[in-house]
């Protein structure tokens, strides 16, 4: 069996108490799939940048996962000509 490799890069940047993450999937079959996630620092919270990075990255990966499920459902519907019902 041939092994396939899917690579996800996560890019994180910060602007004024907001952290943004972008997760980009590198996959020959699903080019252009991207997930984004945001986190913001509440004025009453202690500033711990790693927590903002973790939250934003987790949200970006969740968004990317949702996009993959939608792509799979679309592919299934194209093959079966019936509505796909995928559980998340």
From TrEMBL:
This is DsRBD fold-containing protein. It comes from Amycolatopsis samaneae. It comes from the Bacteria. InterPro entries: Rv2632c-like, Rv2632c-like_sf. The lineage of its organism: Bacteria, Bacillati, Actinomycetota, Actinomycetes, Pseudonocardiales. SUPFAM superfamilies: Rv2632c-like.
